[in-house]
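Email to the structure team, subject: Neuronal membrane glycoprotein M6-a model.

Hi all, the expression group asked for a predicted structure before they design truncation constructs. Nothing fancy, just the tokens so they can compare against earlier work. One-line instruction: predict Neuronal membrane glycoprotein M6-a, return tokens.
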Amino acid sequence: IDIFKYVIYGVAAAFFVYGILLMVEGFFTTGAIKDLYGDFKITTCGRCVSAWFIMLTYIFMLAWLGVTAFTSLPVYMYFNLWTICRNATVVDGANLCLDLRQYGIVTIGEEKKVCTTSESFIKMCDSNELNMTFHLFIVALAGAGAAVIAMVHYLMVLSANWAYVKDACRMQKYEDIKSKEEQELHDIHSTRSKERLNAYT
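Reply from the structure team: attached below.
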């Protein structure tokens, strides 16, 4: 349990740092979009950084989908256990059993059932730890689900931001080509005007 606790601390710290990196990246790419006709190098850098963060966030989102699926199993198991405990107190003398094979905890060949007639089951139902553990698993599932929703939202925002930066690069190239062509036309026109003036003189 201690090792698992330190793993959770490490993951929380890593995602805190990752959130700060995403915030800094958002400032840089947003600055690149605001300076649409400004420095072209900033826009290109913002494009590359956005593409890299899209890929990284997509990988993390898939990992958190796995964590969400993993945390949903204990919630389902504890909900069934809590329901059996509640029904055992309502119906006197009822022999309700929970088959552990349906959760994949034990193999199909082993028959492991936890029934309400055993003393250990009654103690477990009366203990505060069952309620606390059930609520903690619900909080863990909600947190994992919130992380997945946040990453999906960030992927949408980041993809739109990347598309804006890409369009900014194209617009910048178009403006550069247009200004060069206008300058060339102006030079040609002024040269012809000088030639005509020289011909008249």
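The longest helix spans residues 128-200. The two ends are 99 Å apart (CA to CA). Ping us if the truncation boundaries need rechecking.
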